[in-house]
Write a structure and sequence with these properties.
Blueprint lengths: L26 E6 L2 E6 H20 L1 H18 L1 H20 L18 H34 L3 E2 L2 E2 L12 H16 L1 H20 L11 H4 L6 H37 L5 H21 L1 H26 L2 H22 L8 H28 L6 H32 L5 H4 L5 H7 L4 H31 L8 H20 L2 H32 L6
Antiparallel strand pairs: 1-2, 3-4
């Protein structure tokens, strides 16, 4: 099955799935004057109705819903921390197993397929879509938080640890606390999240490019469900994917809005508060709309490359004017600390550091999993032509190393300012403001702080833009060329969900919804692992 002219057809040998299902056969096509809709009748309707109902109820009952969100997040992370941590470990081990196995020779798109993008363009899109806003928000604040709690040591109350230090802490030991803090931070931003993304991305690419199925989450489950994926089992999977993506994105947009607002207040005395954050969400959503209208290559790809340049400039600047030697050596020592502490940090049972493993790790894993339909489909769309081995090594290793470097430079500089210079303002500032406090004592602080705000905004736009493209594909039954008004609808609704959650409890509400949608989707992903392995085993392998 080879077509050298149609880029969506396999090139070379594949083992396609023969099904009578036609992409879009269950869709409703509506013409509204010059506008048109081409939507999956059940997935779009149920997903949109659920999101609209959630937004309305949250806006109507703002004061009542905040404690509900807080208790929901607490219950899920407290009772299911072992489940989230175990699932994360499984995804990493499966990825490593596939890299080392003969299945790594399978090429996405057929044995003769060629990559659609250069390595630079590909890596830029992987990085910008997968981690952008989070790195800006947590790059300084997370290493600093773990360092402070590790230095403070453990605290007991009624036989239960009440501190937030990872593992056994490092009371009074600045060097040990820094190693532990950086290891814990890299644990949350390294192999585990990228393995979560990689598993789903691999499944989507395989079953779309090689098997000829629609580019939607249900297709991954064909080896297990067969033709039933076109019925309600498939509808439920895709609806869960839309909801997980929407609330995972809203969490990130909330982090981005709070940080951009903090930066604008710091630089220009613009008042803090929900009003500023909501205005930012509206403004950035409108910018994202223009990128949505421009499409994948002109919009997301161009913005992702701009992101990489701006992030690279800020990174190089901090290395050059910060504690340069300590940062350069710190990269390798932090990597070593991560490897040393990884088994203990990844242990899902018998943990004494409950606040850390539940409040940090379990939340992160649920957040990454809620992001996985969005990032996974986006990675799949730009990864055609790569072998499974090349794909997994690149998706796991390259962004993980970039995250290690980023956290080392920004977190390491802030810790150095606190420990070596006695600069306490960076540690005492609110989380969204800490990156600006860190930049404040470096040269050209006004310029670099403004650059940081621009980076948050552009990362915000790429996340919203790519998220709209992905949700639209799922809600259109796998059609990648659905009418533009649908992408506009989803882009606007991402902004509305973020606003509703900001008003209904701020970051606590955002995090609660990410965890809530991440839990059922974790089960979906674990089942997907089996389907992906079965699908790969049936494919011809290149030389």
């Amino acid at each position: 099955m080879t077509d050298k002219h149609d880029p969506m057809k396999p090139h070379g040998r594949v083992n396609p799935i023969n099904t009578d299902y036609k992409i879009g056969q269950d869709n409703i096509v509506v013409s509204l004057g010059p506008l048109g809709l081409d939507i999956h009748n059940r997935v779009f309707a149920i997903s949109a109705l659920a999101i609209i109902t959630f937004v309305l109820l949250t806006l109507i009952f703002q004061t009542q819903v905040e404690p509900v969100f807080a208790s929901l997040r607490g219950w899920l992370t407290t009772n299911l921390d072992w489940f989230f941590i175990s699932a994360g470990n499984i995804f990493v081990l499966v990825c490593i197993g596939l890299i080392l196995s003969p299945l790594g020779k399978v090429r996405l798109g057929g044995t003769e397929a060629k990559p659609d993008y250069t390595y630079l363009g590909w890596f830029s899109m992987l990085f910008a879509a997968g981690m952008g806003i989070g790195l800006m928000f947590f790059g300084v604040s997370e290493p600093l938080s773990h360092f402070g709690s590790a230095m403070g040591g453990t605290a007991m109350e009624n036989g239960v640890r009440t501190d937030w230090a990872p593992l056994g802490a490092a009371a009074g030991d600045a060097v040990g606390a820094q190693r532990l803090a950086m290891a814990a931070t890299i644990f949350h931003w390294g192999l585990h999240p990228w393995a979560i993304y990689a598993i789903l991305a691999l499944g989507l690419a395989l079953f779309s490019f090689n098997k000829g199925l629609p580019l939607t989450i249900r297709s991954v489950f064909y080896p297990l469900l067969g033709e039933r994926i076109w019925g309600w089992p498939g509808h439920v999977i895709d609806i869960l994917a839309v909801l997980a993506t929407m609330f995972g994105l809203a969490t990130s947009l909330g982090f981005g809005a709070s940080q951009a607002a903090a930066g604008l207040n710091y630089l220009f005395d613009i008042p803090l508060g929900n009003t500023t954050q909501i205005v930012l969400v509206i403004g950035i959503t409108l910018i994202a709309l223009t990128s949505v209208l421009a499409g994948l290559d002109a919009g997301v790809k161009r913005l992702s490359e701009i992101n990489m340049v701006l992030a690279g400039l800020l990174l190089v600047f901090v290395i050059a004017v910060g504690p340069t030697l300590a940062l350069m050596t710190g990269f390798f020592s932090n990597l070593g600390a991560y490897i040393e502490y990884l088994p203990a940090l990844a242990n899902p049972v018998g943990r004494e550091d409950a606040n850390f493993s539940q409040g940090w790790t379990a939340f992160y894993w649920a957040w990454w999993i809620s992001w996985s339909p969005f990032v996974g489909m986006f990675i799949a769309r730009v990864s055609r032509g790569r072998t499974v081995r090349e794909f997994l090594v690149s998706v796991l290793i390259v962004p993980s190393l970039a995250c290690v470097l980023w956290m080392t430079v920004f977190g390491g500089t802030a810790i150095s300012q606190l420990v070596n210079d006695g600069y306490k303002a960076v540690a005492e500032a609110a989380l969204p403001l800490q990156i600006f406090q860190m930049l404040d004592v470096l040269p050209l602080a006004q310029i670099t702080s403004f650059l940081a705000i621009v980076l948050v905004v552009v990362f915000f736009v790429t996340s919203s833009d790519s998220g709209s493209l992905v949700i639209d594909v799922i809600a259109a039954g796998g059609k990648v060329d659905a009418p533009t008004p649908q992408r506009v609808f989803w882009c606007l609704f991402e902004g509305l969900v973020a606003i509703a959650l900001i008003l209904g409890g701020g970051l606590v509400a955002l995090q609660a919804m990410a965890v809530s949608t991440g839990f059922p989707f974790t089960i979906v992903l674990l089942v997907a692992v089996v389907a992906v392995i079965k699908g790969l085993a049936s494919e011809p392998r290149g030389a």
